[in-house]
Write the structure tokens for this entry.
Amino acid sequence: MPSLSRDLQRLRVALLIGLTILILGLTQPAHAQRGPAQVVTDAVRVEPLLQTVEVLGRVVARQSGILATRIAERVAVVEVQVGDRVERDQILVRLSDDRMASERRLRLAELNAAQARVDSQKATLAKTNQTLQRQNSLRGSTAFRKDLAQDLQRDLDSSTADLAASTAELARADAQLALAEIALEDTVIRAPFPGVITVRHAVEGSYIRVGDPLVTLLNDLELEIEADVPTTRTDGLQPGGVVDAHLQPGGHLPAVVRAVVPEENPRTRTRAVRFVPQLQGTGLKLISNQSVSVHVPIGEKRDVLTVQKDAVTVQGGRNVAFVVTDGKVEARTIVLGESVGQRFEVIEGLAVGDEVVVRGNERLRDGDEVTTSADKTSQAPAASKS
């Protein structure tokens, strides 16, 4: 029995020692049980910061509108369909031209008749003037007749007046012919600029009156961005300045300020601003009325200290970044400012060149040993938005 008691006592001691070792192992910090943590770092650096405000705009065409007729006539042929691309001076619609062609021939005949009358009046005037000069050359001799000279002078005055009237009639006939030719030309409607047919208003055989619409043409080769910018934000927009524009549903491109319209909308207190999109090298294509977000600057550009957003963790209500020094991390409380693309402005807590952990910082503690690799996906900054 004494031997059994000693065995039980030894067993209790062994169990107590094992339990103690197990408890110590479970309560030991995780970082003490493993080797150095694998982390990815990125450097704190200085970058330009430009605060902007997002303004919603749209793509507009510099040339777009309804093409109408200048004469009342029947539609003979509509040469285009909706969606057709046309070039400048390409024929779009032909109106019936038989009446206009007949009118031109009539006016041409009247012009020829008026020209004949002018030629006849010129011949009569020349003949009368010649007779008068011959009679005047006999002045002082017995062959000179005063009454005949006076009659010839009156005939000369009358011929001069008749020639003036005929000349005026010739000018009138010439103008009538020009109007007839214009009307004949107006039976053919041509594209005033290159573009795409968006609406076809007329059909063959229909009768149209002066001013009636024929087709709607939009020049999609000369598009601009128009945005209604709050008047208080237009001071930073000068002709030639460049802003960033984001398209809906995706894609972004630079846009150059062309003009700030000097008129304010009294209801919205905004001014229309026109931007010229810079599409070269972007692979993007704009369409009329497409939504665009324009980032309008609201302050001067300045250089700020920045840190990648993934480097910031929140611990106890404080922003913390882990700085790697000699293979160990130091937890630093930092004060952040504006957002700069994928980075934050740093007010306090970090310095230029500090290597901060951007991946693997979720379970780090101050003083942990780490092995590092550089972040290869760190992006260039973008303008901040407010």
About this structure: The longest strand covers residues 252-265. The CA atoms of residues 75 and 95 lie 4 Å apart. DSSP finds four helices and 25 strands in the chain.
